[in-house]
Design a protein that fits this description.
The protein is mainly α and about 190 residues long. The protein has ten helices and no strands. It has one domain. Helix content is about 65%, strand content about 0%. It starts with 13 loop residues before the first helix and ends with a helix.
């Protein structure tokens, strides 16, 4: 389904190849975790993981930060459930204004638009599942939330303290919730 929503020349940009692989890695994680629960459909979870970054393929790298909203716009009328995944996947706390603005590279118009759309989205378990799986997925493997945050810190210079309240806390809360639903250590599930 992902290919159906990609621009024709998407392979021309090497960033897109990485996003394509990452999308499949997130999809596999979502399916593996969902399969261990009695409340999530593994195939639907796979589809959501696969589609979460679709907006990125439609943007040049310098505008990548707009990809949650662009994915949302692309899918909202035929598939509002997938659109909700696209807009929400980087934001484990919908009310975290500071984090949303930071994510949008201080583009206030974009951040305001994202916040407006988030107000219409339901924070359900699929939304949380993809937020978590995205964070622990690299291009072709899995790492812990803590390792990913260290990477953010080293790559973008965002302090861990700054990330803590609006970002790490809700992600760890989601991890706990998924572990309750699966009755398993989710890292163990993914690293098997
Ligand atoms: Fe993304």
């Amino acid at each position: 389904m992902l290919e159906k929503f990609l621009p024709q020349n998407w392979r021309a940009n090497p960033r897109n190849e990485r996003t394509f692989d990452h999308s499949h890695t997130v999809a596999r994680a979502a399916k593996v975790i969902a399969a261990q629960t009695s409340v999530l459909d593994p195939e639907l979870a796979y589809l959501y993981g696969l589609m979460h970054d679709v907006g990125k393929f439609h943007l040049p790298p310098r505008e990548s930060y707009k990809h949650p909203r662009v994915g949302y716009e692309l899918l909202k009328s035929p598939h509002s459930d997938i659109a909700a995944i696209c807009i929400s996947h980087p934001f484990p706390d919908f009310d975290a204004r500071h984090h949303i603005l930071q994510y949008c590279k201080n583009d206030e118009v974009e951040a305001a638009e994202v916040q407006k759309i988030l107000q219409t989205v339901e924070e359900n378990t699929y939304v949380e599942l993809i937020q978590f799986c995205d964070k622990v997925s690299t291009i072709d493997g899995y790492i812990s939330i803590e390792e990913k945050l260290k990477w953010y810190n080293e790559t973008y210079g965002i302090s861990l303290q700054e990330l803590n309240a609006e970002y790490i806390k809700p992600l760890l809360h989601i991890k706990k919730k998924l572990e309750k639903l699966t009755n398993r250590d989710v890292y163990e599930l993914l690293l098997k």
